[in-house]
Amino acid sequence: MDSGKENSESNHGDVLQEWFTFIGQMLALRVLRWNNLRVIIGDRLRALREEKNLSQGDIEKRTGLLRCYVSRVENGHTVPAIETLEKMARALEIPMYQLFYDGEEPPKLPDLPKRKSTDEDAWGSFGKDARFLNKLRRLLGKADDNDRKLMMHVAQKMVRR
């Protein structure tokens, strides 16, 4: 009987170790992606600004953002909010998509698979499933963000089995 308890505790420890390893890997990947995003946006903003023969001071005057902030963005020390990117695009007199895309025309949209013509076929659209989904939505709305993320992770793991 004790060996069953020890085996259960050992499995619990293995699961925890696997969980912490997974979380560590996800955090490292997130930091890597975040750092790449900072560099890409900063490089693109600098290139566009220099292409228009504008100084960081000119961007400061046009946007109201401090020159030192513009420098921090261009050097990859910070990622601006969407509202800030909108200001910068206006100051550079370009459409916002050009901050993320190098070309004269907007990128072509890929041929995505067509969705079902009606939502009636989707699970949770009506009846008992719809009531269940609505209740789940209300309960998740009361949970904090970390708990919702945990629930999403657990659901994804369950589906993969």
User: What is the total number of structural domains?
Assistant: 2
Overall pLDDT level: 77
CATH topology call of the largest domain: 434 Repressor (Amino-terminal Domain)
Termini Cα gap? 30 Å
In a few lines, what is going on in this structure?
With 161 residues, this protein is an all-alpha fold.
Describe the protein in words.
This protein has 161 residues and is mostly helical. It has 2 domains: 14-104, 434 Repressor (Amino-terminal Domain); 126-161. It has 6 helices and no strands. It has helices at residues 2-51, 56-63, 67-74, 82-92, 127-142, 145-160. Helix 2 crosses helix 3 (67-74). The longest helix has 50 residues, at 2-51. The mean pLDDT is 77.
List strands and helices in order, with pairings:
Layout: H1 2-51, H2 56-63, H3 67-74, H4 82-92, H5 127-142, H6 145-160
Keywords:
161 residues; mainly alpha; 434 Repressor (Amino-terminal Domain)
